Amino acid sequence: MTSLVPLIDTFRGGTLECRHFGAVAVVDTQGKLVAQAGDPHWVSFSRSALKALQALPFVRGGGPKLFNFTPENVALMCSSHSGEPMHVTQVQAMLDKANVPAKALQCGCHMPYYVEAGIAPPPDVIDERHNNCSGKHAGFLAHCVQHGWPLNNYLAPAHSLQQAIRRDVARVVGMESDALKLGIDGCSAPNFAMPLSALARGYARLASGAADSEFGESFVQLAEAMTSHPDLVSGSARSDQAFMRAGRGDWVTKAGADGIQAVGSKSRGQAFVVKISDGNKMAVQAATVAVLDQLGWLDARQKDELRAWRFEAIANAKGTRVGERKSAFTLERPR
C-alpha cells in the first residue's frame, strides 16, 4: 500500500475528512509509460473493466457474424448494464440467436441498477437477464455453442472458453498467461489481477481503431460498438455513458467494481487506468475526470459536460453545501 498516493480528498468545514489513496497509469499501445501517479504497476483486479477483453476470443473467431450479433449486441457483451428494458431486450436477443435459454445464464440475479438508483420501480419479474453482467455471459454461452463446448460449466477456470479468454487477455496486455492472478468476480466468472499499466496497454490497443497484427479488426468492432452505444455499455445516468458521450467517439471507457476505471483514446493511441484502493465510486469518477484534465484531453465543452462527475460539492440532506471534494495529485512524467 506504500505505492499508493492520495488521489482525492474530501473536506468538511474546511477540515480534511477523508483521503482516498490510489494509483494511475498512463501508457501507449506498446506499453510505454507516459505518466503516472503512485505506482503505475500496482497489481489490482480488473473487475468489469476486463469485459471488452474477455470478448476478444468470440469476436476474433467470427462469433458476432456467425450469430448475426448487431453492434448493440456486441456492446452488451462489454457492459455492466443497469438492467433497464433496453438492456434486457438485447440480452434476450443474443440468447435467442444462439438458441440458448435464459436459465443457462450462471451470473446470478440481483436488483437492477436502475431500480437501486430510483429511476423507475422494479419489473414484475427479476431474473438473471437483469444482472449487470448478463450480456457478457450471453456472449460466453454463444461462444460455447459456436465451438460445441459444454454449457453447464462454462465458468470453470479450466473450461476451454475460460482458457481461450485467459490466453487472449494475456496477449493483449503483454503478459504471460500464467502471470495473470486468478480470482472470481461478482458474477462468478474468472477475473484477473494485473499491473495497472498492463490493463491500460490493453485499453490503448482496444481504442486504437486500427487493424492489429494479432487480433485483426476485433478491436475496431468492440470499440465502435461501445462508443456508438454507451447507453448499452452502462445505462441511464451512469458514468461510462457520460464519459463516452463526452469523448465523441474518441474515448473507450469501462468502469469496474471496487474503484477501477479504464479510458482509452483512439486519436492519441494512449490509455489510462485509475484505481482507488478503498473502492469509492465518487472518488474514482472524480479522479478519472482529473486525469483527463491533467492530460489535456478535455476541451471547454467536455470540461463542462463532465463537471458533475467531479462531485466537487458535498451537500447534506437539505441540499446545503457542507464540504468539498478535491483532486490531491499531479501526474508525473517519466524522466
TrEMBL record:
Please give the InterPro entries that the UniProt record associates with this protein.
Answer: Asparaginase_II
Recorded hits in Pfam families, A to Z, give: Asparaginase_II
Under what name is this protein listed?
Answer: Asparaginase
